[in-house]
Design brief:
Elements: H1 2-29, H2 31-40, H3 46-66, H4 70-98, H5 102-128, H6 138-150
Helix pairs in contact: 1-3, 2-3, 3-4, 4-5
Length: 151
């Protein structure tokens, strides 16, 4: 049963952060477009915001994916995701409601609820760690195999 849990943790980590890795890579390859979008949303210092976004999304996303310092990387993404959700989706939802744009409001509501769900997954990684099939867990996996052999 531990094997199922370990594989589930690995696949879950990859699926959880895949959205960040892809988004961070897209920001890296389309820096000017991303900075324009950030400026349109009133984000101060777009070049700095872009660099932080790439580091958090792509960098921390890869760390969680491979399971290296996964707890801390998940916490960084979680904390970063709070203002991102508020600025881009909660504010967008409220604006769409004020302008009586029901479909846009619904889309923004779905987006911020998706983000809240992802934040729950990130807290789970922070709380439980990356699991045995990770760089963080390779020592614990070897110890568990040794204990099974000794028994």
């Amino acid at each position: 049963m531990e094997g199922v849990r370990d594989v589930g943790m690995l696949i879950g980590r990859v699926l959880l952060v895949l959205i960040f890795v892809i988004s961070g890579f897209e920001k890296l390859t389309n820096a000017s477009g991303t900075m324009a979008q950030m400026s349109a949303h009133g984000i101060p210092f777009p070049p700095l915001a872009l660099a932080v976004s790439i580091l958090v999304e792509f960098g921390c996303g890869l760390l969680v994916m491979i399971g290296y310092q996964a707890r801390w990387a998940a916490l960084v993404i979680f904390l970063w995701f709070i203002p991102v959700t508020l600025i881009f989706h909660v504010a967008g939802y409220r604006q769409a409601l004020a302008q009586h744009q029901a479909m846009t409001a619904l889309i923004q509501q779905i987006m911020y609820m998706k983000n809240i769900s992802i934040m729950g997954g990130l807290l789970m990684v922070f709380s439980t760690g990356a699991g045995a099939l990770s760089i963080d867990g390779r020592g614990s996996a070897a110890e568990a195999m040794g204990a099974r052999r000794a028994a």
